[in-house]
Automatic annotation (TrEMBL):
Residues 20-60 form the Cardiolipin synthase N-terminal domain. Its main location: membrane. It comes from Pontibacter silvestris. Keywords: Cell membrane, Membrane, Transmembrane, Transmembrane helix. It is found in: Cell membrane. The keyword Zinc-finger does not apply. The chain crosses the membrane at residues 9-29, 41-60. This is PLDc N-terminal domain-containing protein. The keyword Glycoprotein does not apply. It is a multi-pass membrane protein.
Length: 66
């Protein structure tokens, strides 16, 4: 909680980022028809690059496979 007291904006930004990661993973697993290899690749992107991963997923999401 020390982070929240020192800089509440940073705390909220990090919290929102990881909520977006979790929601993106949920969408990837349950709402798309990607192959297993494509899903695993997106999971790696979402967790290894947590700042840009969710934005990349939603930007490059192939809606034809949903």
């Amino acid at each position: 909680m020390d982070l929240f007291l020192r800089n509440p904006f940073l705390f909220v930004a990090v919290l929102l980022n990881y909520l977006m990661v979790v929601y993106s993973l949920y969408h990837l697993i349950f709402k798309t028809n990607y192959t297993l290899n494509e899903r695993l690749t997106w999971m790696v992107v979402l967790w290894i690059i947590p700042v840009l991963g969710p934005f990349a997923y939603w930007f490059f999401w192939d809606r034809r496979k949903a």
